[in-house]
TrEMBL record:
Provenance organism: Arthrobacter cheniae
InterPro entries: VanZ-like (IPR006976)
Sequence intervals crossing the membrane: 48-68, 101-118, 125-144, 156-174
Keywords: Membrane, Transmembrane, Transmembrane helix
Stated name of the protein: VanZ family protein
Amino acid sequence: MLQDWKLSAVLQPGQAIMEQLRRQPSGSFLEGIPLSTAPLPSRRYRTIVAALCAIWVMAVAFIVLWPTPVDRAGVGWLRGLLGALHAHGLPALVSYGTVEFAANVLMFVPLGLFWFLLAPRSWRWAGVFAGFGLSLLIEVAQLLLLPQRFATPYDVLANTLGTFMGTVAAWFLLRTSHLRPSPKL
C-alpha cells in the first residue's frame, strides 16, 4: 500500500489513475486475463464481418421501423403453443413476455459481436454503450413516429443485455482462438 501511495505521488495524477486501471484485482476470476488485448481479426475476416453487420443493420431496421408490431400475425399461434407447453409442464415463468424479452436480447447479440470484431482495441467494450444508445434511439423513434408500436424500457434493457452478451462472446472467442496452439505441419 505504501508503495502504491509513493507511486501515485511521483506520477502525474492522470498517469496514476491509468496505472490503477491497468491492474487486475487480486483474487478476481479474470486475474491475468487482459480484457482489451484479444487479437484483431485479419483484414479478410473483418471484411466478411462488416458485410454481415450491414445485413444485420438492414434486418433490424426492417423489424424495428415496421409500422405495426412484427409479431402481430404470430401472437395467437405463440400464445397457443405456450399454453399447450404449460399444460405439459413448462413453467409459467416462460410467458409471452419472457419470449419477447429473449427475442430482443437475441436480436442485439450480433451488435456486440460485430462491434467487438470491427472496433479498435481501445473501443471494443464501448459497444455495450452503443447498443444502449441505439436501442434508446429505436424506442424514442417508435414512440414518436410509429403510433401502433410500443416503446418500452424493457426493450432497451433487453437490447443492451444482448449487446453485452455478444461483446463477451466475441471477446471469449477471440481469446480462446488466440490461446489455442497452432497446428504443426
